[in-house]
Amino acid sequence: MNSLLLTTLFTLCCLLSQAQQSIKGTVKDKSGSPLAGVTILIKNEKNLVLKYAVTNTKGEFSLVVADTVFVKKTNLEVKHISYQSLQQLIEKGKFIYNFTMDESAEILSQVVVKQPPIITRGDTTRYKVSSFAKDEDRSIADVIKRMPGLDIDESGKIYYNGKEISNLYMHDDDLMDGRYGGATKVIKKEMIESVDVIQNHQPVKVLRNKKPTDNIGLNLVLKDENSWALSGQAMIGIGAPKLLTSNLNTVLLNKKVKTLNTLKINNTGEDYRNEITRMGGFTENQLSASSSQLLSSGTAGNPDLPRRNYYFNRSGLANINFLVNTKNQFQFRTNIQAFTDRQTQEYNSFTELYTATDTIRYFEQQNIQKKPWILNGAFTIMANKERYYLSNRLTVEAEGIHDPNQLTTHQNSFSQNLRQKPFTIANAFNFTPSIKQRGILDFAWSFNYSKRPQQLYVDDGLHADILNNGIPYTAMRQTADMPAFKNRIATNYLISKGIFRQQYSAVLLQENKELNSDLLLQQNNHNWTLVDSTTNRLKWNNTSATFTALYGWSKKGKYETSISLPLILQSIRYQQEEFSMKEQQKRVWFTPSLSARWYTSTEDFLQLSYSFNNSISDINSIYRAVILTNYRSLQANNAILQEAQSHQAGIRYNLQRTIQMFFLNAGITYSREKVNSILAYSLTDDVQESVLLPVPNIMESIQGTLGGSKYSYFLKSTISVKTAYGETNSRQLINDELIPTKFNTLSGSLGLDTRLFKRINFNYNGSLSYQTMKQQIKNSTSSEMYRIDQQFTATFNLFKDFLFQVQARNISSWNNSGSDVQYWFADAKVRYNLKKWKTDIELDCTNLANVNEYELLRVTAGMSSMSRYLIRGRMALIKFTFQL
Amino acid sequence: MLKSLLLAASAFITVSARAQQPEPMLFKVEYQFIHLLNKAKNDTLHNEKLVLRVSPEGSAYGRLDFEAVIQKKELLPPPPPGSVTITAVGRPMAIVNDWGITDDALFFNHSKKEIQKTASVGVMLYSIKESYPTINWQITSNTKQVGEYTCQEATGTFAGRKYTAWFTTELPSQAGPWKLNGLPGTILEATDDKGEVFFIFNRIAQAREGEMTQNELYKEPVSVTQSAFNKAKDGFDQNPSGVVQAQTGVTGNILFRFRDRNDKFHSDEAAHRLLEEKRKKTKAVLSNPLELK
After folding, report:
1. Reported ipTM
2. Each residue of A131-172: pLDDT tens digit?
3. Which of A293, A625, B121, B146 is the most buried (most CB within 10 A)?
4. Is residue B230 in some structural domain?
5. Would an 8 Å CB–CB cutoff place B195 in contact with chain A?
């Protein structure tokens, strides 16, 4: 009965305008501010809404109602999700109703959600392997490639949204010690439940929620964390000419024990040293070895081609990784790599060096047969607990390089042998306690001991006039070593509040080094004699304390500034008794740096940076006695400690008009370095002698860059252009003449990405560089060279599960001494997945044009060169991968 | 938890809030969105899950995660001096969505009657001007149960379609799926009278502490007009990697992925094949858009 009446009433409300009245009012909060978005309801006794209104920004509402509401007992209901609901009876003759609403906890009881709670996810993006994997996928790497935002490159490095991940974890453990490159290709997709991408990843539990990072961690979550099943993978590839490559892997992963082991061989140009390199998992207090290589067997570097084009190898690698977690949250880990290789290399090079009056020419041809080996071991103990973080990592690295070779110069031909035995032992200890305050305190201690005994044996009596008073002799032997011990203690305190952050650190560094060298000659009577003034017994000690205050202000989208104020107290002592040299230098440095970025609009920003640096050279600029660094170079020093002061300033503007698909950036950097000594060269037709002399030198350089890209809707292609111009002015002291030298570079590149005939994607990248070097003295000519490098890639998408890609590259180069080179390289790749056989087949053809030699032109200050390398010719390789 | 959530919510009300600002979320609703893209073809029935996030004054709607990312209020400190800095040298990625996939998100302030639409092309996020949709709803006395809530029926016309919406005063917000809004309670279900568009209630949950309607943006979106945006989007479908190159200035190969309507990602040859199919079908498929006028 009542409902019928109401329905009638409802209809009447809508139809009969003459029987309508208007109710008005305002809604405010307790402070008297108007409330917008509040709903005013008129409901019937069945709790159904008959009429409603919403308050405007002034808190006002108005409702047109039927006369009957004044007769029947009707309530006005006032509701807002953040406020306590109100009710008031509509009174006869009253048309204005004002309300004041209370904020109340009660309101949420109205919004009680009738569902189970949600599992916390935070910064983690979870990719379920089952939703991305396809039948043809074998390893977890194949599946990761399909996950949006994730990508793996050739070396196994993983990127998330274009940013390199900080490390790969297997069920929360860093089994590979950062060398995760090969791991994802070995782990079967069936073993992994999900791939978790953890943004702002903080592996140290104590620092979680305290020290945000912008690292991205990747965690492979195991499907069965209690599995003791051992799995494996085998690959074999054969090809022409006489190519062989093979891998064998075993994997066992569970909660307690994890192990991943690899055995590999190849002679196809694949460099396993990539797998020995750590890609992630760096701790901040690791010290690097400071013993450096002093001697070399030749003067030419590597060609600027991909490594596999010129790497003639027979390599083997064993990689063993083992990890165990104990019940009391301690972790023990061992990582061992053993690498051996037999590398051959053949090249010749012409070098021209310019003096004030003359041009000196050198020719060198070398056949190298290197036999290096590397043995690395890392032993880690870690406790990552809620109360504290503790880790200790001990590493031992031993290496042997045996490099016998035949060298031919324009005068003679002789055999050489360079042997080196680098060795490093290092330890890094880290402790971070959990403290109650907002700040973070940490403590780190690390040391590194390294040595690098090296010996260059030359089977000929070179430079007898300089080294042996003109008396002929039969052979020479240069020995050198640089044992070094470094010790570092650091502590850090960090506070961050709002837009302002401050960080204070103290670092104590102590370094002891020695440089020992001798040059011996074998006289015609077979006795070895020591050459005068070629014995170095240099002792070096460097102690420094660095106190740094770092302040930063940033507001997202507006500005970011940071200023660093380091104060360095440094003391250097060195002595060389045989030259009765004993010095001590004390310095106090203040080396501020500043960087600021302003966003002038949402798309544009201006960046300014400035830094001042003060540096003292190393032991290399102090030794007095001559060292034969290669068969034709003799080096010594005759200067005080080399000190350099440098200023660097830069400005950059970035402009983006994304809707027009237009991007432009321009920048200028300027640097000026003042050094208190100069390397003086004395050049003759068969020897280069160099001495560091106390003559002040200034090096100035300025560089400007301009780049842009634009997408053409009409051509459906993007064209991008980059240009750069640079000028460097420095002085060289050659044959007692101070020669100011100007070096200019102009470079440009052009990129094009387009689609051809619908199924072909075409990409072009070309670059041009033009370099000139001019010595600013009378009668000097400038050296010039240009180089054009163009690369064409076409990808054909013809059938399913089938990929065909061709790549061509053209390099042409010219210099003003008349050298002119041009090369074409072509590669082709076909990949096919054989689902039935559970096997992948890949055919790779490289260097189809069968180029066997490659020439490289170079120009640097005071020098130009042309090197010719023997490279790998046409190769075809077919690879099969099986799951075990 | 409830208390601090409320505190956060009430603190926010005193601050003047703009539609595009992230706001503390109160609750969230997931809808199954079904749309017949082409009346002539039954296989063009598009189906995806879309999420409505409700805040005290506004709401956000689109292809959002049901669980939002908790906002980080602290700024990232710089790496300590002497630490190993790893420079990112990766490549950006171009993702092309298949037909019908919702690629824009709507952000409302119902109190101020403001709306902002954001959508991305390539690696850039754009903000497109829209006018606040006002619907003249007619409330009826029909009720039905949706999930655990008693809903009341209302009918109204928007963009050429007549919708029937079911709202509940138990969730006192004017929010609803897509542009359907303005009722005295949250709209939990809506369908058009031709049976071509459905917003079906899937699930609802209370927000966790710190969840916001919008994830904090790395960069402010760039304001553009709808026609400029459409042009950019067409250009992107024609040559995705080319557009990303132009946006970022990165030369060389750009990674390319294709997202199909089942939310599967395709790469390499499969992605190119699917993109080719999308280009061919473009006009034929989408003859029945969501907004007819």
Report:
1. 0.72
2. 677 766 778 888 887 776 677 877 788 887 667 888 889 888
3. B121
4. no
5. no
